[in-house]
Amino acid sequence: xxxxxxxxxxxxxxxxxxxxxxxxxxxxxxxxxxxxxxxxxxxxxxxxxxxxxxxxxxxxxxxxxxxxxxxxxxxxxxxxxxxxxxxxxxxxxxxxxxxxxxxxxxxxxxxxxxxxxxxxxxxxxxxxxxxxxxxxxxxxxxxxxxxxxxxxxxxxxxxxxxxxxxxxxxxxxxxxxxxxxxxxxxxxxxxxxxxxxxxxxxxxxxxxxxxxxxxxxxxxxxxxxxxxxxxxxxxxxxxxxxxxxxxxxxxxxxxxxxxxxxxxxxxxxxxxxxxxxxxxxxxxxxxxxxxxxxxxxxxxxxxxxxxxxxxxxxxxxxxxxxxxxxxxxxxxxxxxxxxxxxxxxxxxxxxxxxxxxxxxxxxxxxxxxxxxxxxxxxxxxxxxxxxxxxxxxxxxxxxxxxxxxxxxxxxxxxx
Length: 415
Ligand code: PMP
Prior knowledge:
The structure is a single chain. By secondary structure, this protein is of the alpha/beta class. It folds into three domains: about 1-30, no CATH class; about 35-65 and about 310-415, Aspartate Aminotransferase, domain 1; about 65-305, Type I PLP-dependent aspartate aminotransferase-like (Major domain) (Aspartate Aminotransferase, domain 2). Helix content is about 45%, strand content about 15%. It contains 15 helices and 15 strands. Strands 4-10-9-8-7-5-6 form a seven-stranded mixed β-sheet, sandwiched between helices. Strand 11 (about 335-340) and strand 12 (about 345-350) form a beta hairpin. Helix 14 (about 355-365) packs across helix 15 (about 390-415). It is globular, with a radius of gyration of 21 Å. The termini are far apart. Bound molecules: 4'-deoxy-4'-aminopyridoxal-5'-phosphate.
């Protein structure tokens, strides 16, 4: 049996002392030992309703039986590739991704994380166009490796590492004029999250992404969409760009692509882009990327996504959750300033960071897992697994209501 004190102490001594302090401060008092579906269990037997889903990495829930079975089968055959022979799970997953992704996306480079998928997209865009400039969005989040960070938009994460990569510019998300001004004949690509996740769940104006597509076509720049968090059904469509009928040239995927079982990322691109480096096939590579175990998970995940119609389910359950949260907003207008989102990517904006942090801590006491968005601590994101049922939504709403009351009472005492 793992004791909480021992594991927390190991975090403080061997992982990250500041993080250990932060987690304790946030009220984390358990060690996760087991999970199933929408539930996580700690060492004391407490059960938590998972409304964070590993920052969107668990669209299929914890240990989806079909995905676990596919992974176990592959584990018994060959988990990692020899890297010499052809490997079937990787080839089949690439075909399945070409089928399910919008437009002309046809080729896949496999890696493990969102940041790596973004790195690959940026490199492929520069290779294919022979241009350098990348137009990114303010408040964007694309990961924390140096290239992905160069495309990201929050100063606290960027500044300590400057100088970052050259030739990156940032425009306000949703601002058509600023985008039009930024794109020129040096522009290799525009990189954008269809809905900003870590930025606080920001849905752009309807005309923004189609306009970005048009500008890219006119200037010969490529459109990279980062669907690391919005992809695989999360927003009520298989991919969020489908809300606006936009067909990207490159798409970054990760998080739930590995089915919540194995890390897996992918940069998916058009034939034209991948052919541009076919004379240099090893110009970008990864030893463990696209390994058979992860690809077996990916393939099973895409099947589950379609068989269980999880995008439709996300749309339906998202409506229910949004409606309930809006009712809460009308009861707590002094605390909640906005409720927004699409499908099951929902942001609850508070009037202050303190209210958001206290409410997340109070939800944790009630054994509901949530977190703030990394670029905007005033926003708590709710993004449960897409297998969530009505009764879970009700449990979360009840806990949210109790948490808001508790924080309001506390604020009144302190005032
Ligand atoms: N892109 C987006 C849109 C993300 O939300 C994230 C992670 N929150 C990333 C990239 C980075 O993914 P990872 O943490 O797997 O590197």
